[in-house]
Amino acid sequence: xxxxxxxxxxxxxxxxxxxxxxxxxxxxxxxxxxxxxxxxxxxxxxxxxxxxxxxxxxxxxxxxxxxxxxxxxxxxxxxxxxxxxxxxxxxxxxxxxxxxxxxxxxxxxxxxxxxxxxxxxxxxxxxxxxxxxxxxxxxxxxxxxxxxxxxxxxxxxxxxxxxxxxxxxxxxxxxxxxxxxxxxxxxxxxxxxxxxxxxxxxxxxxxxxxxxxxxxxxxxxxxxxxxxxxxxxxxxxxxxxxxxxxxxxxxxxxxxxxxxxxxxxxxxxxxxxxxxxxxxxxxxxxxxxxxxxxxxxxxxxxxxxxxxxxxxxxxxxxxxxxxxxxxxxxxxxxxxxxxxxxxxxxxxxxxxxxxxxxxxxxxxxxxxxx
Length: 370
What we know:
Layout: H1 17-35, H2 52-63, E1 76-85, E2 101-111, E3 126-132, E4 140-145, H3 155-164, H4 176-185, H5 187-197, E5 210-211, E6 216-219, E7 225-234, H6 250-258, E8 263-271, E9 289-302, E10 325-327, H7 332-350, H8 361-365
Antiparallel strand pairs: 1-2, 1-9, 2-3, 3-4, 5-7, 6-7, 6-10, 7-8, 8-9
């Protein structure tokens, strides 16, 4: 973790109420989308605490109910391409797709959060989800976003923060006192938000680095396991984040134009040590080994309204893993799996009533708006 040299503890300075208001005003909708970045709860929790139903209900309370859409990552487009393995991952994992070769990929670019018509904005959290599906072998699904750590240590913290975004019936707006109370009860939250705030955001989807955030295990042919985290590093040139534009889909339109040429990301796996933290709000030391296991290329996009669109019926459940990759003591991916399943069932029930997506089929075919 990059610590402020003027603050040896590495902890952010104590903020008063005014400073807190400014901090959360800056991250604004992005913080709300962080609450929607992962559906972090599942059936492994006791029924009297949290369940997938309660979390999905929480998304709808905070974001509104949008029939036929994903309750999380609601605004997005499909993509297809391939993963070309370097073979470097075979040292750590026996998964078949680690062997040198070219494997089909289905992907989805989206914003985190449950609002399918949210106007594109610089502060929104971007996501990229992938399904690598080798013929005759077990698939690998990934769910990644463009921040370096998740601001919540566990499921309860995530859910508590999500509820701070539920509008007060009297005012129609979230109660800021609830957010202040949450921060007071979860001091690690501000520390994680401080790490997120130091990242240099890119100009669009195509040149963004996407991180899985959770800890998984690579298991070798000999049965040895190592903790890992992975990221997608773009080969497209970095450009800094720009101001918001009036076109409500301007970031997606830019992605559509960029995809006129194949878009590429290196899949970089960080090899951890046994004592590295599993919690997703804690970063690993910078000196950990990084292994380039291959390149993901995405060369075609499609609106989710396109008949037969590749990603429409995929949940991008991060626990769908091939033999040779497994979940770790980090319970969050399993919790996400349960809530994603609940969201999918609702979408299936509502399929015939779903209105058009924000990014339409004609918009994609036209190459984005001018």
